[in-house]
């Protein structure tokens, strides 16, 4: 797809992905979680260190560090991107910032990084993500802030009856008439693919082992080789008594970090870097906040329209498995081939450390593509 063009390429400098790494993903469990006694800053630090070491770039050459993190509270507060960079012993002259766009936080960090390079403002940027969901439960900061007032004023609540994401996933299943059996089948396939990928060593290039008080963590913790239609069929629904979504068709609460190194053409040439992918285009969309998980549908449509590509032109795709209904609704609307989607499993098997998942998806996609340089959309 070297001849593909887009507004991004037409109006900006070329942006390349040099490398991408991630920690293993640990279960968010107080007793069995692999990272139960590991600080969130440590997880991100290990990714930053590995990224610098693998690329051979001097940390001082980095212009900025942009990191996604949803729950910026407790050990993830006070700009965790900056804390991790300093914890790695890297130059304090390099700035860092932390981004919250909920589950798309790390994806936004990448979008900002690529846009800044394309504009000519920066040359080398690290985009990363981190979330320790065992130490900082989902929306912990909102629960504390409720002591000082609701995050939503009355007039906004008159417009929207905000609901949990699980209920949004149920609404998607209802709207697209997605059966529980179809969702269970997708989840079984996710586990089977992830287990096979792990056994074949397909995650090896992206994984960064992490030393913990309980030993070295080198493998993803959430994989369940025994997952079957029978075992998932025995699960109760979790968001509605008469619903269709179960724990098995939901993403796992997890701990982890990931990071991607971006560079412009001038920096690639000047520093002798070997790019592994090129950014062809990128989009961000907004959707109805009540059924917010449908975002991949208009985002994919807009991206294909801007690039002139069709869904069949894409060889590999990653769509976050926040819930099985999300992927299946996207597939039905776009006509995507699920054999080319999440080929190494997704968040139902690997886990979904929310602030980290965007860069994790990129690491997995990058490391499963062939050749030293590929076009990525």
Question: What report would you give on this structure?
Answer:
- Strands 1, 2, 3, 4, 5, 8, 9 and 10 form an 8-stranded mixed β-sheet that branches.
- Helices cover 36% and strands 14% of the residues.
- By secondary structure, the chain is α/β, with parallel strands linked by helices.
- The protein has helices at 7-11, 40-55, 80-87, 105-118, 140-145, 154-159, 165-175, 180-199, 229-233, 265-271, 296-307, 324-334, 347-350, 357-368; strands at residues 15-22, 26-27, 64-68, 96-99, 124-132, 210-212, 215-217, 254-264, 277-279, 374-376.
- Strand 3 (64-68), helix 3 (80-87) and strand 4 form a beta-alpha-beta unit.
- The protein is globular, with a radius of gyration of 20 Å.
- It is built from 14 helices and 10 strands.
Q: Which key features would you list for this structure?
A:
alpha/beta; two-stranded antiparallel sheet; globular; 10 strands; 377 residues; Thiolase_C; transferase; eight-stranded mixed sheet; disordered C terminus
Distance between the termini: 10 Å
Mean pLDDT: 94
Largest sheet: 8 strands, mixed
Strand content range: 5-15%
Structural class: alpha/beta
Report the count of strand segments.
10
Helix content, binned percent: 25-40%
What is the number of helices?
A: 14
> Would you identify the regions where 5 or more consecutive residues have pLDDT less than 50?
370-377
* Computed Rg: 20 Å
Order of helices and strands: HEEHEHEHEHHHHEEHEHEHHHHE
The general outline is: globular
InterPro entries: Thiolase (IPR002155), Thiolase-like (IPR016039), Thiolase_C (IPR020617), Thiolase_CS (IPR020613), Thiolase_N (IPR020616)
Organism: Paraconexibacter antarcticus
Family: Belongs to the thiolase-like superfamily. Thiolase family.
Keywords: Acyltransferase, Transferase
């Amino acid at each position: 797809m070297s001849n593909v063009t887009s507004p991004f390429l037409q109006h900006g400098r070329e942006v390349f992905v040099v490398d991408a790494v991630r920690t293993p993903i640990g279960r968010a469990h107080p007793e069995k979680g692999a990272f139960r006694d590991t600080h969130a800053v440590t997880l991100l630090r290990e990714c930053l260190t590995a990224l610098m070491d693998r690329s051979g770039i001097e940390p001082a050459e980095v212009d900025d560090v942009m990191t996604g993190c949803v729950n910026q509270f407790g050990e993830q507060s006070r700009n965790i991107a900056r804390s991790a960079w300093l914890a790695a012993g890297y130059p304090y002259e390099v700035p860092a910032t932390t981004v919250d766009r909920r589950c798309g936080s790390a994806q936004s960090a990448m979008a900002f990084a690529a846009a800044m390079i394309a504009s000519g403002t920066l040359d080398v940027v690290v985009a990363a993500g981190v979330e320790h969901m065992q130490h900082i439960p989902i929306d912990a900061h909102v629960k504390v802030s409720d002591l000082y007032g609701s995050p939503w004023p009355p007039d906004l609540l008159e417009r929207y009856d905000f609901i949990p994401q699980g209920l949004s996933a149920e609404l998607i299943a209802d709207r697209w008439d997605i059966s529980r059996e179809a969702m269970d089948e997708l989840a079984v396939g996710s586990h089977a693919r992830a287990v096979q990928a792990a056994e074949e060593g397909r995650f090896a290039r992206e994984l960064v082992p992490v030393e913990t008080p309980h030993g070295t963590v080198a493998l993803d913790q959430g994989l369940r080789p025994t997952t079957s239609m029978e075992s998932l069929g025995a699960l109760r629904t979790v968001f509605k008594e008469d619903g269709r979504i179960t724990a098995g068709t939901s993403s796992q609460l997890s701990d982890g970090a990931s990071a991607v190194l971006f560079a412009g053409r001038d920096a690639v040439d000047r520093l002798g870097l070997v790019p592994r992918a090129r950014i062809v285009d990128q989009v961000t969309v907004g959707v109805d906040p009540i059924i917010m998980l449908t975002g991949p549908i208009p985002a994919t449509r807009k991206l294909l329209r801007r690039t002139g590509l069709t869904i069949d032109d894409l060889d590999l795709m990653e769509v976050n498995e926040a819930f099985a209904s999300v992927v299946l609704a996207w597939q039905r609307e776009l006509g995507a081939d699920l054999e080319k989607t999440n080929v190494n499993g997704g968040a139902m098997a690997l886990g979904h450390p929310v602030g980290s998942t965007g860069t994790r998806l990129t690491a997995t996609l990058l490391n499963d593509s062939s050749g030293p340089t590929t076009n990525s959309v």
